[in-house]
Predict the 3D structure of the following.
Amino acid sequence: MNLALAGLAALAIAMGVGRFAFTPLLPMMQQDAGLSLAQGGYLASANYLGYLAGALWAMRPARADVAIRASLLAVGVATLAMGVTHGMAAWILWRTVAGMASAWALVHVSSWCLEQLTAKGKPALGGVVFSGVGWGMALAGGVCLALMTVATSSSQTWTILGVLSLALGAALWPVFTQRASASVKGNTLTWSPDAIRLVLCYAAFGFGYIIPATFVPAMARDVIADPLVFGWAWPIFGTAAALSTLFAPRADNRRVWATAALVMAAGVAAPMFISGIAGVLCAALLVGATFMVITMAGMQEARRVGGPALMAAMTAAFATGQIAGPLAVSAAAHLRGGMVAALSIAAASLVVSALALGRKERKPCPT
């Protein structure tokens, strides 16, 4: 259990803060830093471009202990730097660094933890590891909500989250130094039709979920001005994500993935059919409750079919979809339909991926 909790904490820092702290901070930066929706899309895409680069880098062999500790340090430093530097150029740099480190952490922490837990006969604890992303998101969202109510600036909030990340990362260093004796070994990826299908479906997942995942708090802010109300959107999203992996059914990975994709599509579409804060909170709940289930099922299926190299390739495809998502919002902001058009495309991509996953599986490649 200690191993699973260490993985939980590592993903909480790397993903919950390094990747997703920007989401609850976006409305704060819009208010006190004058950040526009289009600029928010550019900062989000910078993070996802870094995530893509980090995922591609993670396809190379690396020592797990070094990779995990380096990624935690980089996330803490980049988060802290967001609070002490100013201007789009600097912010784009630091969000790119945080994205690279987050991808490294997801691939190496999940691959190593799943391998170690399986060796110990406790593969079910993988759900605990992946819940760390949601707990990190809930923590970041809760911190932002609390600081928002006392009129703390966005730069001060970035600084506080950076200090918390560095402190928690420092506490985890000895754990991974002692336990991470094995390397996460690379392998040659065979591009079978089945592997290609998994990669494409994971890319659709990245595109489909990232629009609400990035802009839920901003959408909530548009329909209600009270931060005590709209600020709850992201903690709800994160808590739903954390609990979902703990209670996800232990069934066929592809069936779980496809079902979750359909539920997520309903959540993505919710703000178009349910008006006001109810639609936004519905999106937060349904998307939050499924995106880590898909991540967990997808990573487990990738490890089964193609090993760590396929896990990294799918993470890179996911990042590609994420880059396209915020850019689509930035483009739609200047077109008729705006966010509605972007949400429609996102929901459709998720439905198509679910249908593709429902096709008969090809024989997996030997690992």
